[in-house]
Amino acid sequence: MSRATRGARVRRGTLLTLLAMTAVVTAGLVTVLGFGEVLLSSAADGETPVSISRWLSLPLLVIGAVAVPAVGHELALARREEVGLARLRGMHGRRLVTFLLAEPFVAIVLGGIVGLVLGLAGTWLTTRFWLEEAGVAISAWTSGAAVVVVLVATAGVALGMAAASREPLSDQVSIATRAKPATAAALFGSVVVLAAAGIAVYRAGRETDPDLVVLAGPALVGLAAGQLTVWLLRGVARVATARTTGSALPAFLATRRVGRGADRGTALRLLVAAGAVGTLAATGAAGISGWTDDNARLTAGAPTRVDLDELNAREAVTLTEELDPNGRWLTAAVYVDDDNPLRRRAFVDTERYVGIIGDFYSGTPADDVVAGAEGLAIDSPDPLVGDTVEVVADGIPYRLDNASAVFGGDAPPLDGAVEVTIDYVATDGTPGTSILVLRARADGGTVSAGEPLENCADGCVVRQASVETGIVFQGDFFVVGDTRFNEASGSRSTQLRTLRFGDTDLTQVPWRVVEIDSLRKDERGSVQPDEGGGLLVRTAIDGTVRADLGGVDRTLPLLVTAGLDFGETGPVVLGPGGDDNAAEVVSTLPGLPFVEGSGMLADLPSVLYGSGPTIPGADVMVLAADDTPASVIARLREAGGTVRTLEEIETADRLATGAVTARVYAVLAGCCLSVALLAFIASAARQRAAYRTDVAALRVVGVPPGQIRSAGVGELALLAGIAVVAGTGAGLIASRLLLDALPLATVPEFGVPLQAASSVLPAIGTGLLLALVVVVVAGRGRRLDLDRTRPAILRDEQPPVVGHRGRVAAR
Predict the structure, then answer these.
(1) d(Cα 351, Cα 604) in Å, to the nearest integer?
(2) How does this protein lie in the membrane (predicted)?
(3) Burial (Cβ within 10 Å: 0-12, 13-18, ≥19) of residue 110
């Protein structure tokens, strides 16, 4: 035990690295899995639970599966002489590996325990900041992840040590590590990684759910790019070494060390792979964060949104006018959601909206909505006031005395008639209908009809008037006449002398024909002013004809999203009450408030003119500016409003779309970088002793310290340059080709498209970060310390030679 303790103390640096690496991998997996469990269980009743794919953690597993054997190899190299001595004593194969695994196994188990604790803490912290409530998930997945990491890490270390234990004894007692040709297994593994990276890129471009290869793609692409970089680096270094022979000594030394340095390739590959994952995570997090912010602004409509479930659209407009007469803080809005994009519509009081919103949508897909909303409001006629409705008409089909000759049998005489129907809406949204039947007189004279109006004392808006001809009376009942009646009567038109709605004669108001219902589609009816006054309603020759006379011609200007197709009918917008309104598109934008990526926006007061009651599916709200007084917000609460800030809406959107996954993935990328950094530190620490030996040997042959120092700087510059190029390239490839395929967020059906991979800055930043790591970590081992690199250390580091009589002597 004392020998094992002393050995562990001597190799504490590598063992602590292994412990830390195991802890980081375990903590990252437990954090991701635990966060997903808490998120899944936090969904309220009736809500669709948001889940995070457990296999998003595959990049960390891939990098850990490469890094842990590398550390095991470093640990075996640190025990080279001990391994050689054990082999001389007859210890081989599994027995030797078991002997070597005692120390790292303890470190791995401790690392697994520490990682589990850190992972639970990480789950609590991430849920504390990114979810509504903090939580910790201890499940079969989180506990199993820690066990799997311990087992896989142990197997990986055993694999690395097995490779080192099979080295020739001459290599194990050598004071320098020489570059050796790659083994067949190593080459096969490199080819497998390259092939897997290609498959991941190929499958990521398909319109299918990502599989395990695609989810592991960022790490695979990074490892492949790192492997290609290592091959390129060694090839360039060897060519440069040959070119610098006989020239400047520092350049020769730098390139020779890069070309012959053993085991540096694995650490550099891991750095590049972790950099690729980090670039993808940073690009995705930044893009999804901006996309979520845009969605939240489109959903909120203003810095503060107050939902009014108990009020209708008209009441919301009235409330804003009462609480904010000057239009400085409040504006009413209505949003109607629907599965049909042509029925997704939003309405705002644009005269107030423009001044209140300001630059709220700056930089979002609805950036130009303020400028476009300025022209949406249109003038509306004053409502009509009155108590009765009356119609006077001429030219109604005369009495048909010979009905029996037309219809056969003993048909009694029939009287022709015209039915006038008027649909109207009170200013409070209450609908009404007046049906006036004009029965022809025997002498063909003028006839009239009238009835009282309901709820029009304060004003009403006439939505539509229809005139239906071809009606005949049979006894006390009227029926739709048939073709023979129309042919026999020869009637072609009906003259409405007056159509008085309260105090207003509607025959003097311009109307437009909405629909002509005729059996003969090639003949159109018409409604036009009569020379003698009133309106002349012309009908088709045969069949029953209904001439629908639409309300006053008010075409509503619309803002619509790109790709909205109205077809041959042209733009039509349904009001908050479900009424059809003719419209015209004045501008097309990528996104609009409330409807987001698909729908339309119109002026609320304009569309409320003549609109029926607000439909139950409409969301009625009041939008408030940033500087709205607290007292006004309190009044809105008293009116039954639910206040929602932009931050609350953004949090809800992030959970609803799963965009919080991008943040968890960033944590995972941080763990990947930590593992790669630990592997690089372990590799650099072992190379530090070899570098001191090389410097001492150069000093023996008289190389000046200045040239040795220049060679070290040149080596660092070459490694840093290749790290920048490889890190940037791998990051760009991963983010451009794989990011869109990863399930980091779910775009709603009608949401604004997510475009995250559009910037090269994260890739360049990652490349510079990797170069900094190389310079800082590897640079520590390149500092020229004259005391520690004196030539005498060559004698101290020579392995002992056992004489034929058992005496130990120096070589």
Answers:
(1) 10
(2) Multi-pass membrane protein
(3) middle
- Cα angle value 398/404/405 (rounded, 5°): 85
Give the amino acid at 305.
R
What pLDDT shows up at residue 450? 92
Q: Are the CB atoms for 724 and 768 separated by under 8 Å? A: yes
Question: 445: which 2 tokens?
Answer: 């004279």
Residues 664 and 285 sit within 8 Å (Cβ to Cβ):
no
Do residues 757 and 736 lie in contact, with contact meaning Cβ atoms separated by under 8 Å?
Answer: yes
Q: Which two tokens stand for residue 314?
A: 């008209």
Residue 211 has φ and ψ, to the nearest 5°, of -95, -175
Q: What's the gap between Cα 195 and its chain centre? A: 30
Nearest to 283, CA basis, from 734, 628, 584? 734
72 vs 159: CA distance, rounded Å: 8
Residue-level pLDDT at 803: 38
What are the structure tokens assigned to 286, written together? 């930044």
CA distances for 85 relative to 178, 763, 808, angstroms: 21, 48, 15
Query: How many residues are present in the chain?
Result: 811
What global pTM score does this model have?
0.78
Q: Are 589 and 562 in contact (CB under 8 A)?
A: yes
CB 518, CB 540: distance < 8 Å: yes
Instruction: Tell me the angle at which helices 705-738 and 264-300 cross, rounded to the nearest 10 degrees.
Output: 40
| Residue spans of the chain under pLDDT 70 | 1-10, 43-50, 77-78, 80-81, 84, 87-90, 92-93, 162-183, 185, 240-265, 395, 397-415, 442, 444, 470-492, 512-525, 538-553, 689-691, 697-701, 756-758, 781-811
Neighbours of 132 (CB within 10 A): 12
Which pLDDT belongs to residue 347?
Answer: 95
Range list of H helices, 575-618: 604-608
Alpha carbon of residue 727 to chain centroid: 26
- Please give the pLDDT value at position 809: 39
